[in-house]
Amino acid sequence: MNSTIRDITLADEGQRRIDWVRRYMPLLNQLEKEFEATKPFKGKKIAVSVHLEAKTAYLCLVLAAGGAEVAVTGSNPLSTQDAVAAALVKAGLTVHAWHGATEEEYKEHLSRTLDIRPDIIIDDGGDLVAMLHSSRQELCDRIIGGCEETTTGVLRLRAREREGKLKFPMIAVNDAYCKHLFDNRYGTGQSVWDGIMRTTNLIIAGKNVVVAGYGWCGKGVAMKARGLGANVIITEVDPIKALEAAMDGFRVMTMLEAAEIGDVFITTTGCTKVIRREHFERMKDGVLLANAGHFDVEICKPDLEALAVEKRMMRHNVEGYVMKDGRVLNLLAQGRLVNLASGDGHPAEIMDMSFALQALSVQYLIENGDKLEPKVYSVPRFIDYRVARMKLQAMGINIDSLTPEQERYLMSY
Q1: Is 149 annotated as a binding residue?
Q2: How much helix, strand and coil, in percent to the nearest 5, is found in the chain?
Q3: pTM attached to this predicted model
């Protein structure tokens, strides 16, 4: 199948990026060796829509090593790295993606990826699933199942399941303990600040940082902000999460209150219009606006456009919206995922765990998919525990085991 990429001559650079992360992903190293020997995916076709950078590329190569025919696209136009896409094509995989794709091109790339007629899908944000339930419904009957990588995608899946419209089983990889406790917290926490600091070249210490949402991603962003010396403010709609944030030592207030004092605003909610007109109208000159949610809807760009009398390119990936009174509100990465659109995404060691979960969940679907109903499933606990033990082993850490007596004690009443 022909690929759709920018420039095949970038392949050598892309391969260097893949080789670099491969050195720091021991779990995928181990699974690659296992899959090469056992070929659990032989004869199967897998369509992948995940942020197309080096770590994702290595996951795809591991699946291919297990015998799968793999077609790949990106899950966000600004996170695709053209050099990595070229390297995958050179390695024999099918790729339909390029950096900066228009909305129409992005949808075309998704559809071409599905032309492989997949048995399994790996989705990030739910766009593949959405297309399969709309313009490509003819492919649903052959799909064994799929895996969803992120919170936004799981929310969309559960909404579809509640309405009785989900046509095949999906595993919520995002909800696995070895995913959200580490990827969402430590991965997002580090990579968001990497993207912001790389893009702005500004100090974080001493600034008022407003984090919208105190889920696992928000916790990670807030924790790293405090470590960088920021004064951290949390906004929430969930009273339990707000209470948790307060007891973790953060200031908690409404976004309307925070708008007047914040220097840096970061959205991590998965919801729409979290920061909007009434907030922009109160903000200080020079604030930074960044989004860490999957879609570019959390910071309301139409409201920014309506309020601005001018828009300036301040730096690469920084757009300055000039208000009538002269204040400039700086939007990073067009309001898209700042850690990927302005950086390289999560650290390799973190994605090693998340993608080990993906690979093992794909294997589980192939072995058990015929027994599963079209519902959203959790990652089986034995997979979560296997990934945790693999990670501990790779880190050189040993832990205790229960003795038979302790097991009997815990099972008694």
Answers
A1: yes
A2: 50, 15, 35
A3: 0.92
